Amino acid sequence: MALAIFLFTYVFIAGIRLPFPRLDRPGGALVGAVLMVVAGVVAPSEVFNYSSDPSRHAVDMDTLVLLLGMMLMADYLSQAAFFRAAGAWALKKAHTPRLLLVAVACTSAFLSAFLVNDTLCLMLTPLVLVVVEDARLPPIPYLLAVCMASNSGSVATFTGNPQNMLIQGASGLPYAQFVAYMALPAVLSTGVVIAGLLFVFREQLSHERFDTHPPPPPVDRPLLGLALATLVGVVAAFFIGLPMSWSALAGAAVVMTLSRRAPPRQAIERVDYVLLLFFACLFVVVYGVNKAGWADDIYRVFSPFMSGPPWRETLGFAGLTLVASNLFSNVPFVMLARAWVPTLHDPVLGWHVLALGSTLAGNLTLVGSVANLIVFEAARGKAELSFLGYLRVGLPITLVSFVLGLAVLLAEHAIF
């Protein structure tokens, strides 16, 4: 029963459209969670039975609270016109189509390292579309730079993307240690994205100068100063080891209290509660699969590829992560794989490999990452890209960046 419900849910998580029932990703996850409880696989008391033992409760509230806090912080930065100002500043420094692509990618990667990459893509895409339209440039390379660089840059920290937040909650690794290992793979992966896009679109991106730039947006300086100072404080709290979820939510509460802008209700209403509901329901579905023993059975199926010395186990797990994150979607796979990592020879390396593989896997296909979907949904009518068109660019960039990032991780663990 647990496996049947999981497969039913996966159909909709994978984005498969059926004539009946007509469910999307959040709807499929919600129905799957309800079925797990109704069928008796998961007891109602297990859903929110919060205890120190993660195996005894389904919903990981720490991850949801962390995601909520970062969403609220991002919303106040958006109200202060931070994203538009940062994008306009970066674009002002670019004088050629090729430098413009580099500026877009670097801005997206850097901001995604500290804020959730999905939110960053939502804020940055409209600005990029305005610039390329005014400059009469092809939009596809720059839209790919936004989503691909946001994926690669988000590798660097726990707060870069939802799957890294899940890994933080399950692993308990210190924020500073994670950044120390993952920063260089993130930088190199972003470099591969830039180099790959410049090469693939070399005939469309010239070296000729252009002077089309968006006018600087009006910035709410008091709110911007407050939000940035609070964000620095939140990141500092992460580094010294304070609880990440409540540090993020405390930061949002500070900005709410001291801000003189509109009432907090408006910021609270703009939170993506659909995403939070999707995660909560997915927690219940995956918990039911784990409770029924199917996660262990799945692991045993793939264990022959990871048997042998530690280096072979790591390479096998890395390959499984890259492939399964595209088959199952990266967030559900990370939820499943959290139970496997502690059994590896080097669990710390396993967590790092899981974060690297599940995130960079998002660059492989158009549907591999929510960030990709956000960018091209926002560009609907102005830029169209087929699944195969994306794959032609995403496949080589993903493979090269993944191999390079994995090599760096292995070298870092061997040295340190």
From TrEMBL:
Pfam families: CitMHS. It is found in: Cell membrane. GO terms for molecular function: arsenite transmembrane transporter activity. Residues 17-361 form the Citrate transporter-like domain. GO terms for cellular component: plasma membrane. The keyword Nucleotidyltransferase does not apply. Its main location: membrane. It is a multi-pass membrane protein. InterPro entries: Arsenical_pump_ArsB, Cit_transptr-like_dom. Keywords: Cell membrane, Membrane, Transmembrane, Transmembrane helix, Transport. The chain crosses the membrane at residues 27-43, 64-87, 99-132, 178-201, 222-240, 274-295, 315-337, 349-375, 387-411. Belongs to the CitM (TC 2.A.11) transporter family. This is Citrate transporter. It comes from Archangium violaceum Cb vi76.
